[in-house]
Design brief:
By secondary structure, this protein is of the alpha/beta class. It folds into two domains: 2-134, no CATH class; 140-315, Rossmann fold (3-Layer(aba) Sandwich), CATH 3.40.50. Helices cover 36% and strands 14% of the residues. It has twelve helices and nine strands. The protein has helices at residues 2-16, 25-37, 42-48, 61-78, 137-141, 173-183, 211-218, 225-232, 239-247, 259-264, 291-294, 306-315; strands spanning 53-56, 81-87, 100-104, 152-156, 188-192, 223-224, 252-256, 270-274, 299-303. The strands form two sheets. The protein has a six-stranded parallel beta sheet. Strands 1-2-3 form a three-stranded parallel beta sheet, with helices on one face. Strand 4, helix 6 (173-183) and strand 5 (188-192) form a beta-alpha-beta unit. Helix 1 packs across helix 2. The radius of gyration is 20 Å and the shape is globular. This is Glycosyltransferase family 61 protein.
């Protein structure tokens, strides 16, 4: 029966979005099926409304932030959340869950396939926000510990294998040098590129950009998240907890395609995202104008290359 329904929904996707490439219609089909699957829970969600929902997820961090976490928070608000299960060091994200289990020590990106338990679970031109609620991470973690004399600017960089290819979406040292020089007089810059030992890995191998030591030597005024973690590790639950506390005090971000961009979109303000075409599918579905700003109401600026990064920086 499921196969027949999926075939029917593919036809629906093809009729509704004839301009979308045939191979991309499968994503639309899957999101349709995710939403249809929620009809099974109508009685529990809207009538009995007792705690029953167990949300168990081991897939990509990006999908967890965009789809799973807001779904879990909706169930919390609805009174129907029973338990959340995810990867190591995710408790700070699920602060609202009274029964959160960190079961997995590694993310499996394929876990997102055929995972129809959440109304939105993959790329789509539209999203269903019926069972999706903004998670108030900023309100939860705003603090006086990471307060600085100047407004914060967080540069959330990455340098890892993407789609089984060499790194694509990252700021190299010359770009970092130019950005820091532009803003260090007006902003306290916090540089964040987690080490492989600080986050739960998936199939994307983290590589060495050698920028941490370079920043210490050439721009010592830049505060590095790795250094903050060493200084405060006795007072934070994990590196993720630290990120949330620092991000909650910031409203200006420069971030990279993927989970890095999704996390920075949770805190309002402006998030400038570097995301080259040809890799992820966010561009095809215009998601930087839909699901990303929905996470907090943030203004999302999409740069398709480093030149566009600097164009946005000059304008905004």
């Amino acid at each position: 029966m499921q196969r027949l329904v999926l075939k029917f929904l593919y036809v629906v996707a093809a009729l509704k979005y004839p301009a979308i490439r045939r191979d991309l219609r499968y994503f639309v089909r899957d999101n349709y099926f995710c939403r249809l699957n929620q009809l099974r829970f109508a009685g529990r969600d809207y009538v009995s409304r007792s705690p029953y929902k167990v949300i168990d997820y081991q897939g990509e961090f990006d999908q967890e932030l965009r789809y799973v976490l807001p779904f879990a928070y909706w169930h919390h608000l609805n009174g129907t959340l029973r338990q959340t299960i995810s990867c190591s060091n995710t408790k700070p994200f699920y602060f609202f869950s009274e029964n959160h289990l960190e079961r997995y020590d590694k993310r499996i990106w394929e876990a997102g396939y055929d995972y129809y338990e959440v109304p939105n679970m993959t790329h789509s031109p539209t999203f269903d926000f019926t069972k999706w609620a903004r998670v108030p991470l900023r309100d939860q973690y705003k603090n006086d510990v990471f307060a600085f004399d100047k407004p914060l600017l967080v540069i959330a960089n990455k340098y890892n294998i993407e789609w089984d290819k060499p790194p694509v979406n990252f700021l190299d040292i010359p770009a970092l040098d130019r950005i820091v020089t532009m803003f260090k007089a007006t902003h306290q810059i916090v540089y964040n590129r987690p080490l492989a030992t600080q986050i739960v890995g998936d199939n994307s191998e983290t590589m060495d950009l050698k920028e941490h030591q370079w920043l210490r030597e050439h721009h010592p005024e830049v505060v590095q998240m790795n250094d903050l973690y060493e200084q405060h590790r006795d007072n934070v639950q994990s590196f993720n907890h630290l990120q949330l506390m620092v991000y909650a005090n910031c409203n200006r971000f420069i971030s990279m395609h993927g989970g890095t961009a999704a996390l920075a979109s949770y805190f309002g303000g402006i998030n400038l995202i570097l995301s080259h075409p040809g890799g992820g599918l966010e561009h095809h579905f215009n998601e930087y104008a839909t699901i990303f700003p929905a996470l907090s109401g943030a203004t999302i600026l999409h740069a398709r290359n480093r030149d566009e990064v600097f164009q946005h920086l000059k304008t905004f």
